[in-house]
Every structure is written in C-alpha cells, then in structure tokens.
From TrEMBL, chains A, B, C, D, E, F:
This is Germin-like protein. Keywords: Apoplast, Disulfide bond, Glycoprotein, Manganese, Metal-binding, Receptor, Secreted, Signal. Residues 1-23 form the signal peptide. The keyword Secreted applies. It holds the Pfam family Cupin_1.
Amino acid sequence: MIKMIHILLFVLLSVLLSSISNASVNDFCVADLKAPDTPSGYHCKSPTTVTADDFVFHGFVAGNTTNTFNAALTSAFVTDFPGINGLGISAARLDIAHGGSIPMHTHPGATELLIMVKGEITAGFMTPTAVYSKKLKPGDLFVFPQGQLHFQANSGKGQATAFLAFSSSNPGAQLLDLLLFGNNLPSDLIAQTTFLDVAQIKNIKARFGGRG
Amino acid sequence: MIKMIHILLFVLLSVLLSSISNASVNDFCVADLKAPDTPSGYHCKSPTTVTADDFVFHGFVAGNTTNTFNAALTSAFVTDFPGINGLGISAARLDIAHGGSIPMHTHPGATELLIMVKGEITAGFMTPTAVYSKKLKPGDLFVFPQGQLHFQANSGKGQATAFLAFSSSNPGAQLLDLLLFGNNLPSDLIAQTTFLDVAQIKNIKARFGGRG
Amino acid sequence: MIKMIHILLFVLLSVLLSSISNASVNDFCVADLKAPDTPSGYHCKSPTTVTADDFVFHGFVAGNTTNTFNAALTSAFVTDFPGINGLGISAARLDIAHGGSIPMHTHPGATELLIMVKGEITAGFMTPTAVYSKKLKPGDLFVFPQGQLHFQANSGKGQATAFLAFSSSNPGAQLLDLLLFGNNLPSDLIAQTTFLDVAQIKNIKARFGGRG
Amino acid sequence: MIKMIHILLFVLLSVLLSSISNASVNDFCVADLKAPDTPSGYHCKSPTTVTADDFVFHGFVAGNTTNTFNAALTSAFVTDFPGINGLGISAARLDIAHGGSIPMHTHPGATELLIMVKGEITAGFMTPTAVYSKKLKPGDLFVFPQGQLHFQANSGKGQATAFLAFSSSNPGAQLLDLLLFGNNLPSDLIAQTTFLDVAQIKNIKARFGGRG
Amino acid sequence: MIKMIHILLFVLLSVLLSSISNASVNDFCVADLKAPDTPSGYHCKSPTTVTADDFVFHGFVAGNTTNTFNAALTSAFVTDFPGINGLGISAARLDIAHGGSIPMHTHPGATELLIMVKGEITAGFMTPTAVYSKKLKPGDLFVFPQGQLHFQANSGKGQATAFLAFSSSNPGAQLLDLLLFGNNLPSDLIAQTTFLDVAQIKNIKARFGGRG
Amino acid sequence: MIKMIHILLFVLLSVLLSSISNASVNDFCVADLKAPDTPSGYHCKSPTTVTADDFVFHGFVAGNTTNTFNAALTSAFVTDFPGINGLGISAARLDIAHGGSIPMHTHPGATELLIMVKGEITAGFMTPTAVYSKKLKPGDLFVFPQGQLHFQANSGKGQATAFLAFSSSNPGAQLLDLLLFGNNLPSDLIAQTTFLDVAQIKNIKARFGGRG
C-alpha cells in the first residue's frame, strides 16, 4: 500500500520535475567563458555539467604590494569567477602597504561597497562641489555610488586590507592615470582637455607607458 | 499618374522598411531552445522562420491528479512555449483534486498571480511575523509577491482549478520537500539547519527519494 | 533548562528579526493610491496596516456585453488591485458576445498573455510585413509581444471568454479608435497622417465622440 | 633607481591590468550582426578587433523625400550602427518636404525625443481622452513617451528636419498604415476591429500593397 | 589678464554647474527613512544635507552568539545604512560559534556572495535534483544565486566569521523555521503542505513562538 | 436606432475608459520637481494638470562660448525638462568655438550619443589600453559607452555644434577638473592618488576654485 503511494508519488514527481528541471536552467547561469559575451553576460554552461565548484572562488588572498603603488587588487569578477555570471554582483580584495594607495578610478555603472578588515584607509569620492571622504577602520563600511571617481589611501601605520563588493558581475576598474597616460592619447590633446602642463603630462606618461 | 504615385510610394516604403524589417528582430525573440541560454534568455530564432504557431501554446488543460498530492501543475514556461522568450511573462494551470494541495514552494525572483477558475482553494504566503492567507472562489485573484514561500490547498468539496501567471518567462518551482528531502543533503545537516528530528527527516526522505 | 534555551532563542530571534522586519518592507509594496505615483509605481502602504485582503482582488467576473462592441473588459490593474504595485504583473478578463470584438489596440511597453477559457476567439498582431493570427479554443494560450497592435474577435457561435495577464502592473489599453476618433485631433491632420478619407474620419468620430 | 621603480610599476600594472583587460569586455559590446540576437541584444564582437570606427556612424544625412509621403527617415539603429548594441540608445534623422508627414506610428517600448533642426513640424501623441500636440521650431524638443501612437507633419513653408533619439538600441517603427493595410490581414476583420468601411480599407490597401 | 580669464572661467563654470548641480541629485539618493518607501526604494534626502557620514556604516562587528543558534547576523541593509538606497547592494556580517549555524533561509530576489574571513563554514544551496555545497576557508568565496534556499553551518573547530554582500539594498532574510513555525499558520495546513507530522510541527512551534 | 447604438457605445466606452484613464497615469510621469526625488525619478504630476507644454522644451539654442573653455553646454535633463521623467532619455546641445573643448568628463551610468551638426569635433574615450577617437563632421554620429571618461575638442576652423542624447533622464556631467581641482580635496592626497606634482595641482586649483 505504501509502495503504491510511492509509485504514484513518483509519477507526480516526474510530471512536476518536467517543469522544474527546465526551470533550473535559469536559477543560475554559470558562464561559459569560451563562448561569446552578450550585453546581459556570457552564455550559460549546460546545467548538467555544473558542480558545486562552479560556485566557489579560491584565491581571495593578499596580493603582492611590492611595487610603486604599494598596493594590490585581487579581483573576483565574472572572468575570474564564472558562477556569478548574470547575477549582478562581484568582489575584490584590496591590500595597501604603508604609504600606498589605489589611485583615482571609476567603475562604469557599478556601485562599490567597501568593508574594512585591517588597518586604516582614507576613502572618498568627489562631486564638482563636494568631497565625501572618511578615515575608515575595521568595523566600518563605505559606499561609492555608481560611476563616481574615487580613491583609497592607506592612512594608518601598517598594512591595510579591505574587501570590496560591486553591483555588477563585471565592474571594470578604470584607473585615471592609465586612461590619461597609459595609452597613445596625444599630449597636446590631454593638455587641452585637462588643463595640465605638457611637461607634467610627458613626465607621467613616462611612468605609465604612454606614447604620443 | 496614380501608378506613378504607387511606384514612388514603394520606393519610400522600401527605404522605410529597411529599418522596419531590421527592427522587427527585436519586436519579439522566439527562443531557439537548441542554442545556449544567456542571462536574458535564449537566442532568437531567425525572424524569417517565425510563424503564428510560435505565439500559440496548446495543452493548457487539466493534468492527471491521481497521485499522492492529488494535484497537477501544467506549465507554459519558456522551455514549453518558446514564443514568450525575453518577454518577462509565463503561465501555468493548477488542478487540485479533493483534499489535495500544491505543497510549500517558491519561485526565485518571480511574482505569481493566481486566477481562480473552479472550486475553492486556500492560498497564502508567510513572512516571519505574519500569514497572508485567504479562501479563494471563482472571480478571485491572489498575488504571491516575488520569492515568497507559499502554498495552495483545495479547501472545497470537489475539484479545484486555477490559472497562474508569472512575472518571468522561466519562474521555476522550488518545492520545499524536494529541496530538503529529494536530493542527497545529509540528514544531520538538515536537522541542524531546520530543527527537524532526524527520524522525521529520514521518514520524508523515503517518500521523496532523498539519500544521505 | 528547555525554558532557558527558549529565552536564549528569543534573544537571538529579536536580533535576527530586527533585520527581517526591516526587510519585510520590500518583500511587497502595497500601493497607497492616495499618494502620488512615481516612475516605479505608487508609494507603499505602511507594512503594519497590510492584511491578507490587500493581496486579493474580487470581481474578476463577466462584464456586461450589451453594447456596440458586444464585448467587455474587466481589469485588475494596480489602480484596481493595489497589492500588485511594483511587482510587474496584472490581469484582465475578456468577455465577447457572438459577433463582438475587442478592436485594435496596444499596451505601451507591456506583453499580453491570453488564456482561452470558453468559446472561440481569433486573435492576432501585425508587423509591417506579416500577420500573426490564430483561432484559439479553450486549452490554448497566445502571446502578444510588448507594444504590438493587436485585436481579439469572437469567431465562434456563442459567448467567448479569455483571461489576460500583462507584464506590467499598469499596462493601459490604447484603443486605436479612441486615439484617432475619440478626442479633438483635427480631421485633416488625421487624414494626412493615416491616408483615410475625411468623410470616413468624420463618420467614425461621430460614433466615438471626437471633435475637430 | 627610477628605472627600478618603472619595472616595479609594470609588475603592478600587469597585475592590475589582468582584471582591467577582462573588465573592458563589458565596457562596451559592439554587435556581431552575423551571430544570433538575444533578448538583451547581439553577441559582442571580440574586444581585440574593435576599433574607433565601430563607435562612428556615417550617413546621418538627408534622405530622398521625392515620394508620396514627401518624407524620409534615416535610421541609426543597432543593425545600422553595431557600436550601440546593449547601450539602450539609438537615433534617426527625419526629413519632411513641404506638405509631407511621417504618418501615425509607434515604437514598441521605446521613448522618442525629437530635436528640431530646421523648418516647422507639428508633432503629437494621443491618449484616449487627450491630444498632446505642438508646432515645433528650431530650438524646441518634444518627447513621445514609450509606445504611444504619434505623428510628425511638416506645418511650415519649406523643408523640415529633425533628429530623433530613442531609449532603445532597436526601437523599430510600426507604421499604422503598414500594420493595417500593408500585409494580408482580411478586410472584413479590419472593418470589424477598426470600424472603418470595407471600401475605405480596400482603397488604402491598394496603395500599401495589402492583400485579402 | 589672468584675473579676467578667471572671471570668464567662473561665468562658464556657473553655466556648466547649473546642469551639474541638478544632476548631482541622482548621482546618489541617500534614503529619507521617515518618508514612505516606493518600489524602487526610499525618497532621497535633500542633497544639500548629505555629508560624508551618510556613506559610512559603523558597527560591522561581531554579534552576540550566546543563543540557541550559536550564531549572529549583523545587517547593513538600507534601513540600517541609508546611503545605499537605490544602489542595488548591501552587506551583512555572519558570526557562528562552534557547532552553530544560520538555518535554512532565502533572500527573495537577491543573490548573496559570501566572503570567508575566519574558521570553516559549510555552505550550500539546493535545487530539486542537486545539492551545491562546499567547506569554505579564509580566501574562499561562495555565491548563492538569487532566491535559492540555502544554509551556512560552522564545520570547524572554533569561531567562524564571514562577510556577505547582496545584490539588493534590502535583501530580507526569510528563515524557513520562522516562516513555518513562527507565526499562526495552522498546524494541519503545515502538515498538508510539507508532509511533516503534526507532532513534529507543534514541537518546533513551541520553540519559535508559533500558534495555531 | 443609430442613436441607441451610440448610447450603448458610450456605456461600453465608460467601462473601457475606467481602466484606460487609470492606465494613462503610467503612460507618462511628468516630474513634480517640488516633491522629493526617488531612485526611479521624481513624483508624477497629477495627469489631469498635464498639458502639451509639459512635453516640449524650449531653448535648445547656442550657449555663450565667450569663456576660458570657448565652449558651452545647454542641457535638457529632467530638472530642465520635467516631461522626460522616468523615460530613460535626455539631451544637451554643445557649442564649441574655435580652439575650444569640453574637457575630460564622465556621465555616471549613462551612454552618450553625439550627433554632429556643424564644424569639426575630435571626440573620443579611453580604456587603459586603447584610445577610441575620431574627427567628426556633420552627418557623423559617435557613441561614448556608459561611464567612460571622454572629451570633445573643436578641431576645425570655425564654430562647431553637436547635439547629445543620453540613456538616462539625469545623466549628470562630472568634469574631471572640477572633481579634482574644484572642491576642497587636499593637494597632497590628490598628488598621492594621481601622480601629479603638487605645484601643478595648486596651479590648476587656482583656476577652478579649489581649496586645501
């Protein structure tokens, strides 16, 4: 009798599961990074090949800060972590040595939420008329609204660490110095559109590999 | 003279149609279910192969309710009905025999609108502090806001039928019993994270095919 | 001992509920129709005054078809059913007597899904180069992609009934005859921009109350 | 010493650039028009093949207005201008000779913003109860909210020109005359669903190529 | 001469700033929690009263885990942190003592990204046919796609800490035990829609304050 | 007899119009700029007070370019043109005298489409590894994808004019010089986060009114 119920149950389950297994296609969409991208994200890997490992990212650890910036950014964006494809979220880890900083940059179209973990960071963003800046310590969060130019500088005595969350699975990171001085934008055009002196421009271009 | 106008007209029409026929690509996007999915839905079938049949779904009829649940769900989700791809809407039909129910479940990210057709259904959803539940008769609608845990039980004397509309072309249907007891989630982990007794868990696992 | 666990439990619950009760604000947003509208919908009623009745709509019943169109539309849009505010879904009931029709119309920005309930309806939408039209019987669904001009005509021998679901909580219903002939758009301007004869225009204006 | 800094700098840059070059995939998504479309737009061309030319559209010039409408529409939609794929914007140029007009039409789901450049255009849209119409001169803008039926007629003494911007990269242009009279929609069905006389319908069908 | 340039400059700046100061209204929208909510979030505080403090949240610290769950959730949702209003992101901190867990729950419509900070947590979510679960250590991330039922259990030897980011400024946290056993949902209805025994239901209701 | 049909018709119309007049609330949402803003835009003016004038913007004319930049931006954003509220589109007019430019700036979260009207403009945007820049003449369009740092410089012999369309009703305009040198961001912090010399910074601050 109980067996019969079980058989009937599985008849129903197979009916119910027909819609459910279809539906599970969209519960997640792990990126197939070898296929082309679309405006909404990468193609979905076949759900039958997805495993728990697709939803884990390893290596959210301190980067090497022995460099000019005395800073390192370790990203877990969709191209690093295919499981977040289409889900509108990603993360990064920030390590800044004494005296270092992540220079001025924007994330086009993504908001950034900073979680302080260790040390002290002075973080802020600017509008044409105001500066919104604070010294942050462990236990503090700071939000940089989408697309705003912002910075993070170690203002403490030792190493500083922060975790970053973004409202996009692929926020990018447009460093101002690289945009202005790291490509082949002509120096006189930069001077005209920034009011910087040409000498200053050429000086920084030498450091960031810019030509022209 | 009129003929000449017609000729000129068609010259213009062909110009106008050049943008119009391009544009019609996006007026609809019938799913090519054989191609990969993306976060925004399936690839579009070539518009030149689309016919009126792509916008029709047949078989929105009573399912077989001779089973343990005494209930049947007939879905018209994007995988059943490719014409709704990318349009943010889908439907299902609910048939519940006397004493039956659609047990607790969620649709991740989709709102459900229930249209009562026949009989009486007690439907509701819960928040941690309140139950929003009503007895529904033909002529009544009920809305289950997105992602809320909800149920539908036949509370009348005969068969009950309802039509469901969803704010997603692929709403899924996550039955709580299948999530907890239909896969290989370890029983002691279920006990720890639900406060159910292990004996109770094993009992229901036996019915829903769960292992572990 | 068990009592102590319960006390401790409620200590935790009150902590957990502090975020949960806040969060429930956004699980739903029942419209306060007396307050102003915004681009995303109406203000939310205070969650403490929301009851199960806010999620039910009564009166999804046959409208009166004794009129020129031999048809009736009974809407459950956000202004009729505040519980669907912000949820991207709504519904309507269509009753068409023998020989009647819902004339050409659009829903700006909303897709419509038609569920046949009784009788026979010929439904369709047009692009500049094609007509997508079908005779529909109970058990059939038809989808009208967003913003497309479409119609529903009773093509059977008796009454016809269909339920409609929309991908917007306020889809509107722009009847072509009312847009062209029901307001004070000048007849010569209509003639110029539709290629209809002025006599024809004035004739239909007389029926739909148009001036000018 | 400075050289050493530069070396260290490039070590960091290569670390930073690893995320940046990935991220740049999504800063833009130039359409690969040969690949299939998706609900969010076309596949992205490989970023390594993108050049400045992908972001430029040539040919936004006066169209030929020697035709029945005395008007021309030159579109820069995604199928004409792949660089706007996924960016939610597009444009068109409108040239209307003396006495001409762009007849009644809709853009399903896209808002249109008209910028007057030359001459005088009377533009407007209608709701069932009101006409929102104005005579526009250079220096004026007019907005047609999404999905509304609207028209533009030259009401001045010479040529008129306007630029149009749309809130979609593929807004379409559904001309009412083509929807009703340019395909094979049966004349009696048109009569029933528009209240036009069959003679009038057949008359206009002859002009727009409609059959049936 | 330089002075004149400065004067002219400020003339231009005032022109440019007229649009810029308007625009800054939308660069951020700090919530006015005393005004009503809308489907897109709270009303914006007047930008002239916004200071850097609006973008900081203090108190992202360990919660008290001396309770039945041996766990604590510290939320930084929009109702706790008005600066994230309308930005589609929020955060929480999770502290779980030895043997504790955050029981089964969902966030309707929000994806959750977990960043491991200390100890070991076993985290996972389930579909009807699979369990996606992993043991996580510092340096690991895990993503729970939107609306999925999931859990986090301390599987290590000491305290465990994780930071959570959500793709919504108000993700909620629907604990399964509270939804089923913490309100006045009738026990026989729970039994019918979960397949749990009534005795088991009443037992857990006693712990979570449920009536009926 | 015909009269009777008309009476019956108006009975139906009043039924149909009950939903239609409600629906028209959402066909557009003209901003009430005196009420607070929300994340989705301003409150809607009462539809009964809306007239055709709400959909027109006057003053899209050449601005005064007699200033340091030799350039003028005339905006038609939502705060200038309430009729575009909630519609995801806006416009601006650019006039640049010989030798002038609109310096480096971003629109957070909005794409910009430039329509060349007169003269010659060199326009472009940069990623860390490439410059996408072109000389534009009348008949050319250029698109700046959302959030990218970009510029427009008059590279011709006379005046240059362009019209701009944005994929947001409130795109803002974040001029880099104002963000860095127009507020009270400390000079040493700017130096640290841009690699500019302090002397250079102070020099430009003097021109843009910056302190600190």
